Amino acid sequence: MTSFVLIHGAWCGGWVWKHVASALRAPGNDVWTPTLTGLGERAHLASPQVGLATHVDDVVRMLEYEDLTDVVLVGHSYGGMVVTGVCDRVPERISQLVYLDGFVPRDGQSLHDLVPAGGARHNRELARREGDGWRIPLEDEWRTASTEENLRWMNPRWTDHPLRCFEEPVRLTRPLGAGVSCSYIRCTANRETEGIFDPIASGLTDGWRVYELPTVHAAMEAAPREVAELLREIAGTSPAADPRATSPIENRVGMVFIPVRDMRRSIAWYSTLLGLPVGDASHQGTIYDLPTSGEVNLALDANKPDFDIAGPPRFFWWATDLDACLAHLKANDVEVEGEIEDIGSLSFLQFRDPDGNLLMVCGRNTP
Description:
The protein is of the alpha/beta class. About 30% of the residues lie in helices and about 20% in strands. A hairpin with a 5-residue loop joins strand 14 (about 345-350) and strand 15. It is elongated.
């Protein structure tokens, strides 16, 4: 098992890693996605005093309080400034440093030192004009996503970014990456950012591993599975990186099919269960894809209505509050099998869908 710590970029929060984190956790890795002070759900802590040093402290303290070691530390965009400072502070806790289209500063450099002078002037003027002199709003031209659905998810979550984070230089006491393996992932489909990140990637010295990903700068939104796969490869947890893995079949599940008899009834039932909008089946009404936030997809399948419901649960969903799940099931007249069962590290609850399929929801027990 590998511990990944993913550090977001400007105007974002830990939320932006949601789909990458799900894909990384699927094989059993630990994934942490802290939100930096003043951003995301911590926007209420924003102030003119929040700067790069604040964000370095955020991550260092999380590593220390969670006692994380052998960490693969990943920084996206502005997050590259943060992980650089973190690695200098606690190199003993980090096994690999990965920059995802990120800034790679030298000692004494700020983010504004690494962008064209016009960009720094623009940010300062934007903060003066629209952010009380210390906040940089995210302009409309950068409020984009690969799909309309993702844009609706992201748009209300972007927050202003403290100007001081871009002005404050990083302070290093040792050469970057001393004793730590360093990798750089260049996202090659963004013409708007190539003048910033192409020179950074091409200027890296010997000892760095440089990868290319044919996607846009916000890769964790546009290509989360590809990002997760490359991070696993870099960390050495990908099956492709294991010389013993000789099978052409990849060791990851793509789709779980749930047999159903009445497709319309099942679509309505699962949509209510999971809080999803109701859509239409495909393949002459025999297949219906259920959107998921993880790497494994679900599909209702009405091709073989004479299936047997005997046996263990078809699969399980994760949840953080099983009592709330039980209340939700009972409120929707779902057939519940018994009560919540505690088996040590996990607790679970079983129930049946309208066709009698046994399903399960699980939660991790905290010490």
